[in-house]
């Protein structure tokens, strides 16, 4: 899995032989500066992008192969022990309204480099069936973590934040709430050259600016009804610069307000759901300021991380893509039409067999 934050490659090794899946090992490897800048550049239109995307896909696959070999060596497994790799690829465009979503990654090359079958392109079939193609993890959350008694929400705070609502006796809902870390990452990078605001310390040093927060929240995405999904296609540098034009706020206050934007836009979607426990995963679970703001926004819910469900917050997403690969191999439908808006259940993904 390489997600919208473009921070690294996460690999999970999962055993599906028992009655429920078991996460055996997981590892994160930072993306090289070169690959990261190639992938970042492809997030928005640029000249010669077809060629550049194919070259980046090759480098991405080679880096994924290295990360997989490293995890197998560390866990004491051989390639021949592994049935398949679920390869999300890197999203460089997400335009379900135009009938496509694009995750680059050279699946054939990854199969060649590892000698392991690859399952990839998980989102296209759902989009072809009229769905958003995202988020896909709610089906996995439902399969593993639904409770007969507790009203649960699982919240992934990656670059983009997405939520799964697991309410007893109700269909599972899920959608992208909007920015998770992506705008905070862009702002601290622009102001201080850092990749992210460690523990949310910079945000904690500023004051939330209510008028700026209101301005951010006026983006039409927040009021849109589900099914909905988003990405860097919407929440990018120009979005941020556009909202900050003709203002002279203190940079720390802007960071605090971006943090509040993530917390508020998440909480606004959860308040009416009377969630008993909110389980947080993704890198944002490490942002203490964001977690604190969420707790203030949702006083009636117990807020913890997915560690309480037995899965460390950093591995939930990559675990999900192993599960999605297994569903594809078994030809089990893995989308939730109540989440993505697809016309029906579909088997997701394509297989590059060895
Ligand atoms: N200690 C920390 N303090 C604050 N923020 C952190 C910390 N560790 C990680 N993050 C944030 O989490 C981000 C990475 O999160 P994650 O890996 O879940 O995103 P992703 O999977 O790439 O995104 P998505 O889920 O949207 O695809 C970093 O870019 C950073 O903003
Ligand atoms: C198009 C795309 O890559 N979407 C990602 C992104 O990252 C978070 C959010 O936006 C979510 O919709 C999705 O990823 C997760 C893993 C999903 O499909 O459930």
From TrEMBL:
Signal peptide from the UniProt entry: none
Domain of life: Bacteria
GO BP annotations listed: 1,6-anhydro-N-acetyl-beta-muramic acid catabolic process; amino sugar metabolic process; peptidoglycan turnover
Binding positions for ATP per the UniProt entry: 3-10
Catalytic activity: 1,6-anhydro-N-acetyl-beta-muramate + ATP + H2O = N-acetyl-D-muramate 6-phosphate + ADP + H(+)
Xref: InterPro entries: Anhydro_N_Ac-Mur_kinase (IPR005338), ATPase_NBD (IPR043129)
Keyword field contains ATP-binding: yes
Involved pathway(s): Amino-sugar metabolism; 1,6-anhydro-N-acetylmuramate degradation; Cell wall biogenesis; peptidoglycan recycling
EC number(s) on file: 2.7.1.170
GO molecular-function terms, A-Z: ATP binding; kinase activity; phosphotransferase activity, alcohol group as acceptor
Keywords, ordered alphabetically: ATP-binding, Carbohydrate metabolism, Kinase, Nucleotide-binding, Transferase
Family assignment from sequence similarity: Belongs to the anhydro-N-acetylmuramic acid kinase family.
Stored PANTHER family: ANHYDRO-N-ACETYLMURAMIC ACID KINASE (PTHR30605:SF0)
Biological role stated in the UniProt entry: Catalyzes the specific phosphorylation of 1,6-anhydro-N-acetylmuramic acid (anhMurNAc) with the simultaneous cleavage of the 1,6-anhydro ring, generating MurNAc-6-P. Is required for the utilization of anhMurNAc either imported from the medium or derived from its own cell wall murein, and thus plays a role in cell wall recycling.
Name of the protein: Anhydro-N-acetylmuramic acid kinase
Species assigned in the record: Iodobacter ciconiae
Gene name tied to this protein: anmK
